[in-house]
Design goal:
This protein is α/β, with parallel strands linked by helices and 346 residues long. It has 13 helices and 8 strands. It has one domain: Rossmann fold. Helix content is 46%, strand content 12%. An 8-stranded mixed beta sheet has the order 1-2-4-3-5-6-7-8, sandwiched between helices. Helix 6 packs across helix 9. The N terminus and C terminus are likely disordered.
């Protein structure tokens, strides 16, 4: 009669041991490339790239989305922008190598405040704030709470407005106090390793995923138990948060560009991107056919043109979008991957 309990204990111990070992192996494979800075009781991690003499753009702060870390945006933009502007790539609180801080960081406004303090520590007074996906909600909150620090806003496939339906089951489970801790410590990492390739292709669909993305973007960092749980809490809190905050977007005064595609299977562009274009006075919506959830990688040139326009340079973003469409349409996949990681359902 005692065999079954001991067997279960043995299985649990093996699963816990594997998770601890593999989490450490992930950190060895993808070590911290940034610098941890205390912003008031906890530390945020970031990569800071100074501007060179003759820089033609203002500072730019990049905010990654759900399940991400600073390597995601750094890989997409650093090479093209290095030297032209002061660049700050941030691990959001609890993601990558940043510490989580207090419960205020369970919501986008707390994370926006954390990034504002990091800017002060880095000596950045005002910047263009670029947010991808979940990072879009943080960018919008940043503009509301720190308009004096916001030179402009770039939204890339943003998640910013309330939506019908619910989030995926594993977000809901992992965000729960006890079951979530158990799931993240025993099951999420081995399951995530099996699903990582399909999940990544799903995020890029219908566009091809770069062959080196799993190495360059280091998405496996989110599989570590603490990061996985913080990511789930972020996503679980988002809908209620944007329901409260979205009515205030009309108060945003910063120049704004929204870059989105008509084939995003992760975030509904007709709710979020169109909603931002409607709510932020004077904003410009750049709509690109056959583009999925990763404009930062698939139409990086359009995103950079948007940054240049926000900086006061003359740029025709509509023309840039049409050129991008001609380039990416032949590469689009007709059949979506089986993996569904959408924030929204229904």
């Amino acid at each position: 009669m005692l065999i079954l309990p001991f067997a279960l204990i043995g299985i649990a111990a093996a699963a816990f041991g594997f998770t601890a070992w593999k989490a450490r192996a992930i950190e060895v494979e993808f070590p911290n490339t940034g610098e941890l800075i205390d912003i008031g009781g906890y530390r945020l991690n970031s990569v800071h790239v100074p501007a060179k003499a003759g820089a033609d753009l203002p500072p730019i702060v990049f905010i990654h989305g759900a399940s991400g870390n600073l390597r995601d945006q750094e890989t997409a933009f650093r090479h093209a922008l290095e030297g032209r502007a002061e660049l700050l790539f941030v691990d959001r609180p609890g993601h990558g190598y940043s510490e989580r801080g207090g419960p205020e960081n369970d919501f986008p406004d707390g994370q926006a405040n954390a990034i504002a303090r990091l800017m002060e520590k880095r000596g950045i007074g005002k910047a263009i704030i670029a947010g991808h996906s979940f990072g879009g909600a943080i960018a919008a909150s940043f503009a509301l709470h720190h308009p004096e620090k916001t030179a402009g806003l770039l939204f890339l496939a943003p998640a910013t407005h309330p939506w019908p339906g619910s989030i995926d089951w594993y977000y809901q489970l992992t965000a729960r106090p006890i079951l979530g801790q158990l799931f993240s410590r025993f099951l999420s990492l081995p399951a995530g390793l099996v699903l990582m390739d399909g999940a990544t292709r799903s995020v890029f669909h219908p566009n091809p995923c770069p062959a080196t993305y799993l190495t360059d973007g280091a998405p496996a960092l989110v599989l570590r138990p603490a990061a996985f749980r913080y990511n789930a809490i972020d996503v679980a809190n988002l809908n209620d948060y944007v329901t409260r905050v979205a009515p205030h977007y009309q108060e945003i005064k910063a120049p704004t560009v929204i870059v989105t595609g008509d084939s995003d299977s992760i975030v509904a562009e007709e709710i979020h991107s169109l909603g931002l274009a409607r709510d932020i006075p004077g904003s410009e919506l750049v709509w690109i056919r056959s583009l999925g959830h990763k404009p930062d990688y698939i139409v990086t040139d359009v995103a950079i043109a948007a940054i240049e326009k926000l900086s006061g340079l003359p740029r025709d973003l509509s023309a840039a979008a049409r050129l991008a469409e001609a380039r990416i349409a032949p590469e689009a996949e007709e059949t979506p991957p089986e993996m569904d990681l959408s924030i929204e359902h229904g």
